[in-house]
Amino acid sequence: MAIVLHSSPLLWTRLAAMVFSCVALSVAVHGARVLHGTGDWCIFCWAFSFGGTLLVILVELFGLQTRAPVSWKNFPITFACYAALLCLSASIIFPLYFLKGSTGQSDVRDYRIVSTVFSCLATIAYISEVSISKARPGEVAGYMATAPGLMKVCETFVACIIFVFISDPVLYDRHDALKYCMAVYCICFILSAAIILLCIGECTGCLPFSFARFLSAYALLAVALYLSAAIIWPIFNFDPKHGGTKDRPYVCSSSYGLCPWDKCMTVAVLSAVNFILYLADLIYSTRLVFVNA
């Protein structure tokens, strides 16, 4: 089997991202003394990013793109976008939990600082890979290389973070309106994930309707749903008239990590973020439909 090696900015960017994520992972496992839970998440982010990038490099190195069971126009950039978001989350969470207020051994702290620095470098490398791989105006590329495709990745990632905060402890079982918000998050996540899988599997042509028009219709529905959730969630969590708490409880300042009130606020902010993402997605998707028409 012939090895195909084409030196390019994209290849060097991937190699840099792989090395940076590997160093962050190795240093954290070796001497950072990460705890279970939050530490496991950061380890997963770096391990997933390193393993996936290694796979992408090997496939292209041995010229196996045509034999891969996925669309190679869509898979690498989709993975790079997820890896960038994962490393970004680890770069924020790891220092907050393991560096902030750390008074332990100096060598352990040094390991944690090194992991944080290389996690940030990996984030920059993956963002650079996405920037290099994304479609340019007039260029023929896969859907996931376009702005709406990359937004789908961000939308599903934000939804996953919402699920983490909303489920531990359960924050949506206090009122039917909050259960409606949870339904909105689930419906939009499932549909966005299905669109990503259809594009990676090159199954969009099997649909009995126009995929482009479906994207516009779904984006419009998601904007309406997330707008309602972005309004309802804060009202029923922070308005005293509906059983909410406007002021941050005193116990939150002395608790480790995020208290339930903090998590409710985080979900409210992330709901607004996803609403903005879906609104931009709607604008881009509608533009694609009319340009193609």
UniProtKB/TrEMBL annotation:
<dbReference type="InterPro" id="IPR008253">
    <property type="entry name" value="Marvel"/>
</dbReference>
<dbReference type="InterPro" id="IPR047123">
    <property type="entry name" value="MYADM-like"/>
</dbReference>
<feature type="domain" description="MARVEL">
    <location>
        <begin position="143"/>
        <end position="290"/>
    </location>
</feature>
<keyword id="KW-0472">Membrane</keyword>
<feature type="transmembrane region" description="Helical">
    <location>
        <begin position="265"/>
        <end position="284"/>
    </location>
</feature>
<feature type="transmembrane region" description="Helical">
    <location>
        <begin position="212"/>
        <end position="236"/>
    </location>
</feature>
<feature type="transmembrane region" description="Helical">
    <location>
        <begin position="41"/>
        <end position="63"/>
    </location>
</feature>
<feature type="transmembrane region" description="Helical">
    <location>
        <begin position="140"/>
        <end position="165"/>
    </location>
</feature>
<feature type="domain" description="MARVEL">
    <location>
        <begin position="5"/>
        <end position="138"/>
    </location>
</feature>
<feature type="transmembrane region" description="Helical">
    <location>
        <begin position="75"/>
        <end position="99"/>
    </location>
</feature>
<feature type="transmembrane region" description="Helical">
    <location>
        <begin position="177"/>
        <end position="200"/>
    </location>
</feature>
<dbReference type="Pfam" id="PF01284">
    <property type="entry name" value="MARVEL"/>
</dbReference>
<feature type="transmembrane region" description="Helical">
    <location>
        <begin position="111"/>
        <end position="128"/>
    </location>
</feature>
<keyword id="KW-0677">Repeat</keyword>
<keyword id="KW-0812">Transmembrane</keyword>
<dbReference type="GO" id="GO:0016020">
    <property type="term" value="C:membrane"/>
</dbReference>
<keyword id="KW-1133">Transmembrane helix</keyword>
<protein>
    <submittedName>
        <fullName>Myeloid-associated differentiation marker-like protein</fullName>
    </submittedName>
</protein>
<comment type="similarity">
    <text>Belongs to the MAL family.</text>
</comment>
